[in-house]
Write a structure and sequence with these properties.
Length: 169
């Protein structure tokens, strides 16, 4: 398949590198799904009781596909991404695995994404390149790859470069 589109690459932060290394060694190589990562405390502005109520409301909204309620809850209490406590997590590993994780995390690693846009409804989204590439490699496209748009469900979801070329931007 000819490549006529841009793949975005950004270097991973140290925390992201350690997460990748830990997932690789703990889950992929050893298949240990019981291992728990250690995280720094998160201050999301909620006490324990409020957090429980918020989580209940969030789960009900998800079960009911109530996107308005999910938006309201997100605006009320935005999600705060927990930060990996690298030292505490590494201390839970045996010495050989810890050394392997540290060595692996010392490599240059990148997050690769691709921007996709719908030729019909103009919805734009950034997607992980590895997943999109895997799907596209299974299909035969004459000029450029096409996916189904998650909004309008039409086979018009193309790389942003193709979209811009189509609309002469």
């Amino acid at each position: 398949m000819p490549k006529h589109f841009t793949i975005n690459r950004r270097p991973l932060s140290l925390e992201e590198k350690y997460k990748e290394a830990l997932f690789h060694y703990i889950y992929d190589l050893f298949g240990d799904s019981s291992f728990e990562f250690e995280y720094l405390p998160v201050d999301d502005g909620l006490n324990d009781e409020q957090r429980i109520e918020h989580d209940k409301a969030w789960n009900i909204a998800i079960d009911n596909d109530d996107f308005d309620e999910m938006d309201r809850l997100s605006a009320l209490h935005p999600y705060v991404e927990p930060i990996l406590d690298i030292d505490k997590t590494l201390n839970k590993l045996d010495a050989d695995t810890r050394d392997a994780v540290i060595s692996f995390a010392g490599n240059d690693m990148f997050k690769e994404t691709i921007s996709l846009k719908c030729l019909k409804c103009h919805h734009e989204q950034i997607a992980p390149w590895n997943i999109v590439n895997e799907c596209w490699n299974r299909l035969d496209f004459p000029d450029y790859p096409i996916s189904y748009c998650p909004i309008c469900d039409k086979p018009k979801f193309v790389p942003l470069d193709i979209y811009n070329k189509h609309f002469n931007k």
